[in-house]
């Protein structure tokens, strides 16, 4: 067996994405499989990534005075039933403890699927006065949700690690501000640590968190599978949960009593569950372009915000006292981050790690050592380099070690300074010379094993995704150089051994920048702007995300989920799009979009894998939505079935197989989010129901 066969990936990413991914996460030693389906062993490589994410985010939220807690993992049935709308989403996945030994429990307890019902009864005890606010709680823990679908490592597991934050405020203004602050932190995790572009937006009514007032999200796209993935969420719960768990405080001054429809004075209600996110309101009413650049400005223009000077927690003259239900938020991110990074960056050679989260940023491999040749000078040369790697390096002088993204948040931090690309205002990391003196060593591994060849070592570390490989032999010793190979693109660089620490640091920063730009380019090429339902179906079947003018109505979204993209006839009939012209060329096959729920531990259930490789495409249906009066065309150009919904059930558009009964095949598509970076679409119609469009919506298949 060759080294490539032993260590390498035997399936290509573009041929079988699901199998390729399973091989990458196991052969790179990110995880190992466990005897229980959906549970995985996180090995040192993946746990290191999670630790870096944890450290980065902790530094961010500590500046907001968020405190760390740990709550029990067990929850009673009565606590869960407090909020039926909330727990309804988790009910099928709840794991219950019903006995110990041979004794049945009188009151079974569940293992937490999330912690609202565990924490909020405590909040009710802890909070009495407005002086107790704000309360800001965070915990890092494991979660158990008994997935009924097939599982995928990191992306959809039964047990996973996450961070969950739960906060309570006196006013909705404070609550809204924090929602977007946290959303920005999540975006920074993906951009600054993982080199992944994400789209910030708000969830639709159907997709928001159960019981939330509104849900904000960062969404990623996996080009290899043609699916989107929810990367992290930050929810405004309004007063919905505080009413349920009786979390209220005595407030002083003209602050509002928390009773009513939720759009009155600060501290007023919000219990109606209406989406009052001001960014979304701006799109619905004023059609502003929502950039969401500054999370601190999300409520300043809210017409429903009462700017009464008494709306603070300062010591002010009292007018009256009343009980107010607190305004709550919850927010979380999971080990799904690791899966997203692996899916986007890795290739047919194995894992590709972003430098800032790599356990080893550099692997050093001595070369040219043979029996009888004195290798002492070579290893002395290598030692001078490793000492420089260990000597340290400085960024902004904050003391946190900015060389790899310290999370300090300081404006002057050279290693966290952003520049803006003129085209799309996206994050791109700038390369700056280092000026200060705070140590931050380069993480390296010297592979000096003598029982294997250098080629063996190359394959071994390549599949594990180490960003830089440094080869040092007698040639490099004699020339005072290093041979450096980048894992990301395979580029070979010869560096003079002078200021080598600084040169390697800049190489690592350049790798991060290039990885981000590559991921951004691949994502943007797969987000397609269309305005008709027919193009919508076509691009979804091509494995793309679709940006469309949308009315944002809940009923329209529900109808879209029921509405299929293709019609299937009787025996022997080809699959084709609704409204396609049968005389046009439908021979173009759609991209094979296998269901990533078909992971390694469920490969015996291949019926779970969606295979659309036989779907026909019609590339000439771009303008059918503008031709509503062509239904008399005998060659079945049924252009606008979106305006003639009743024709979808029993129509035979081929005109030849009238005895065939056609059934609608669901697209499996949903609204990923309504992006904050939006535009005025007031002059357009909804792509699905033909009502006036309110905003651009991002739709696609999703994990």
Can you put this structure into words, describing what you see?
The chain has 703 residues and is α+β, with helices and mostly antiparallel strands. It has three domains: 3-306 and 319-338, Bira Bifunctional Protein, Domain 2 (BirA Bifunctional Protein, domain 2, 2-Layer Sandwich), CATH 3.30.930.10; 362-524, 3-Layer(aba) Sandwich (Rossmann fold); 527-584 and 620-700, 2-Layer Sandwich (Translation Initiation Factor IF3). The strands form eight sheets. The chain has an eleven-stranded mixed sheet with strand order 3-7-8-14-11-10-9-29-30-23-22, sandwiched between helices. A five-stranded mixed sheet has the order 18-15-19-20-21, sandwiched between helices. A three-stranded antiparallel sheet has the order 4-6-5. The longest helix has 25 residues, at 500-524. It is globular, with a radius of gyration of 28 Å. The two termini are 36 Å apart. Mean pLDDT is 77; it is low at 254-320, 393-412, 414-437 and 566-663. This is proline--tRNA ligase. Residues 281-294, 572-620, 640-655 have a biased composition (Basic and acidic residues). One of its GO terms (biological process) is prolyl-tRNA aminoacylation. Residues 255-273 have a biased composition (Gly residues). Its EC number is 6.1.1.15.
């Amino acid at each position: 067996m060759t080294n490539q066969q032993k260590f390498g990936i035997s399936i290509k990413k573009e041929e079988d994405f699901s199998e390729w991914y399973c091989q990458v996460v196991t052969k790179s030693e990110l995880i190992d499989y466990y005897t229980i389906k959906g549970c995985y062993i996180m090995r040192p490589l993946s746990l290191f990534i999670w630790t870096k994410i944890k450290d980065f985010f902790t530094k961010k939220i500590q500046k907001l005075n968020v405190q760390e807690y740990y709550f029990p993992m067990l929850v009673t049935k009565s606590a869960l039933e407090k909020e039926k709308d909330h727990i309804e989403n988790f009910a099928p996945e709840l794991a219950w403890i019903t006995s110990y030994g041979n004794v049945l429990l009188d009151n079974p307890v569940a293992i937490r699927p999330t912690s609202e019902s565990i924490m909020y009864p405590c909040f009710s005890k802890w909070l009495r006065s407005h002086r107790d606010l704000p309360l800001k709680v965070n915990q890092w823990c494991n979660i158990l949700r008994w997935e009924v679908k097939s599982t995928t490592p990191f992306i959809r597991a039964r047990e996973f690690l996450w961070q969950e934050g739960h906060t309570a405020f006196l006013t909705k203004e404070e609550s809204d501000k924090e929602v977007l602050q946290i959303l920005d932190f999540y975006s920074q995790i993906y951009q600054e640590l993982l080199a992944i572009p994400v789209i910030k937006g708000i969830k639709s009514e159907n997709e928001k968190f159960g019981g939330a007032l509104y849900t904000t999200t960062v969404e990623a796209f996996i080009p290899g599978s043609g699916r989107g993935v929810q990367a992290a969420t930050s929810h405004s719960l309004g007063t919905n949960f505080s009413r349920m768990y009786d979390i209220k405080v005595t407030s002083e001054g003209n602050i509002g009593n928390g009773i009513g429809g939720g759009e009155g004075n600060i501290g007023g209600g919000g219990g109606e569950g209406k989406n009052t996110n001001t960014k979304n309101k701006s799109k619905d009413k004023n059609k502003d372009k929502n950039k969401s650049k500054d999370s601190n400005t999300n409520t300043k223009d809210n017409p429903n915000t009462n700017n009464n000077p008494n709306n603070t927690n300062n010591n002010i003259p009292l007018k009256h006292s009343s009980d107010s239900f607190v305004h709550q938020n919850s927010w979380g991110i999971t080990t799904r981050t690791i899966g997203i990074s692996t899916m986007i960056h890795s290739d047919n050679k194995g894992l590709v790690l972003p430098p800032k989260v790599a356990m080893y940023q550099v692997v050093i491999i001595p070369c040219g050592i043979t029996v009888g040749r004195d290798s002492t000078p070579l290893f002395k040369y290598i030692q001078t380099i490793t000492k420089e790697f260990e000597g340290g390096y400085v960024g902004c002088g904050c003391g946190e070690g900015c060389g790899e993204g310290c999370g300090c948040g300081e404006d002057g931090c050279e290693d966290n300074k952003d520049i803006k690309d003129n085209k799309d205002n996206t994050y791109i990391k700038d390369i700056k010379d280092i000026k200060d003196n705070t140590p931050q060593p380069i993480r390296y591994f010297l592979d000096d094993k003598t029982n294997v060849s250098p080629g063996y070592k190359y394959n071994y570390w390549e599949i594990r995704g180490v960003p830089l490989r440094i080869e040092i032999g007698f040639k490099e010793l004699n020339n005072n150089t290093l041979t450096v190979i980048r894992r990301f693109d395979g580029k070979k660089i010869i560096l003079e051994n002078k200021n080598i620490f600084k040169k390697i640091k800049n190489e690592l920063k350049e790798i991060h920048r290039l990885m981000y730009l590559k991921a951004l380019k691949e994502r943007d090429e797969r987000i397609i702007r269309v305005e008709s339902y027919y193009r919508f179906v076509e691009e979804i079947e091509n494995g793309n995300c679709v940006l469309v003018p949308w009315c944002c109505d809940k009923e329209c979204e529900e109808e879209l989920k029921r509405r299929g993209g293709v019609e299937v006839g009787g025996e022997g009939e080809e699959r084709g799009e609704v409204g396609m012209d049968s005389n046009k060329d439908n021979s173009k096959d759609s991209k094979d979009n296998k269901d990533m729920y078909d992971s390694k531990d469920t490969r015996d259930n291949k019926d779970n894998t969606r295979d659309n490789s036989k779907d026909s495409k019609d590339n000439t249906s771009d303008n059918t939505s503008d031709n509503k009066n062509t239904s008399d065309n005998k060659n079945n150009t049924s252009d606008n079935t979106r305006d003639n919904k009743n024709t979808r059930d029993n129509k035979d558009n081929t005109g030849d197989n009238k005895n065939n009964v056609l059934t609608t095949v669901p697209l499996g598509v949903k609204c990923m989010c309504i992006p904050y970076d939006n535009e005025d679409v007031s002059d357009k119609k909804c792509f699905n129901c033909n009502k006036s469009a309110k905003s651009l919506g991002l739709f696609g298949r999703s994990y």
